[in-house]
Design goal:
The protein is α+β, with helices and mostly antiparallel strands and 292 residues long. It contains 13 helices and 11 strands. Helix 1 packs antiparallel against helix 2, helix 5 (86-97) crosses helix 9 (160-171) and helix 10 (186-198) packs across helix 13 (267-278).
């Protein structure tokens, strides 16, 4: 990350924002930071947070958002006892075994031991669904099981039970490399997600790429921009005081650039999730990650 890159972004900003940006650029040497060299080891297992980027990537290397966090925040993720998200993981484990709905079934009734049946699931999300005719996020799959197999009510996207369940399922893939399918029927959704990623929106006229590709490492509002990798979701954000989904984070970014956000679970966010997940291929699943 160079000061020249930062200033190129400032030049690309419209009118009044450029004036503010020039003031920021003047202090750019103090506002830039490369990812650190710390290694993430959880319960004795080293998590891949730095990997060579695939040949079609805009990056030379891929870095987990963990590598841009403060030592204090990083430390919370290295021990499951200290990780504040694990209270939700434990709730998710209970929900896995709980009978719910008119069919008298639990998740375990069909899927058995989650440590075996759910291993690798988070790493491959979102997946194509022939029945839905589009990619489905982990939240979609959970609700399909609940409504069609258990006879239970669907959970809302950001409901506590949904976050607990996706965290519990996600941790079964921790340490496995992100690997989503992008060919076949997924290709058009990849293209849609890529278009969304590079399209400027909102009053600030910014795209995802302006922050997370051209200017990762720049410090804004007391935090460093990362590459926007989603390998740790659902994540526990200290700012939120709890877990949040990938789509909540997308919505937050759109709110911050003063754009009208898409709805959680929308086709737009599903396409964007697929594309962003593909950009992190090879990084380890960190669920549940801890961020600022």
């Amino acid at each position: 990350m160079t000061i020249k890159t930062f200033r190129n972004l400032i030049r690309a900003l419209p009118g009044s924002l450029a004036v503010t940006g020039l003031a920021l650029a003047a202090s750019a040497p103090l506002a830039l930071a490369d990812p650190d060299d710390n290694k993430l080891v959880i319960e004795g297992t080293e998590i891949v947070t730095d990997v060579a980027a695939p040949k079609d990537s805009p990056f030379d290397r891929l870095y987990s958002g963990w590598r841009f966090r403060s030592p204090e925040t990083q430390a919370l993720q290295t021990d499951d006892f200290d990780n504040p998200a694990f209270a939700a993981v434990e709730i998710g484990a209970d929900l896995w075994e709980a009978v719910d709905g008119s069919e008298g079934k639990s998740c375990a009734t069909c899927h058995g031991d989650a440590a075996e049946s759910m291993k690798g699931v988070r790493a491959s999300m979102p997946k194509w669904s022939e029945k839905a005719g589009k990619p489905q996020a982990l939240e979609n799959h959970v609700n399909t099981c609940r409504t069609e197999r258990m006879g239970a009510d669907a959970w809302k996207w950001e409901a506590g039970d949904m976050l607990a369940m996706t965290a519990f399922i996600g941790v079964q893939s921790r340490g496995m490399p992100i690997s989503v399918k992008t060919d076949g029927p997924m290709q058009s959704w990849m293209e849609k997600g890529k278009e969304l990623y590079y399209t400027r929106v909102g009053q600030l006229d910014l795209a995802c790429s302006n922050c997370h590709e051209a200017n990762y490492g720049v410090k804004i509002r007391s935090d460093h921009l990362s590459q926007g990798q989603i390998n740790g979701f659902p994540v526990y954000r200290l700012k939120w005081g709890g877990l949040g989904s990938i789509h909540r984070r997308f919505k937050g970014c759109m709110d911050q650039v003063r754009a009208k956000p898409y709805k959680r679970g929308s086709d737009e966010f599903l396409a964007l999730e697929l594309y962003v997940a593909s950009r992190g291929a090879g990084l380890s699943v960190e669920t549940p990650a801890v961020r600022n």
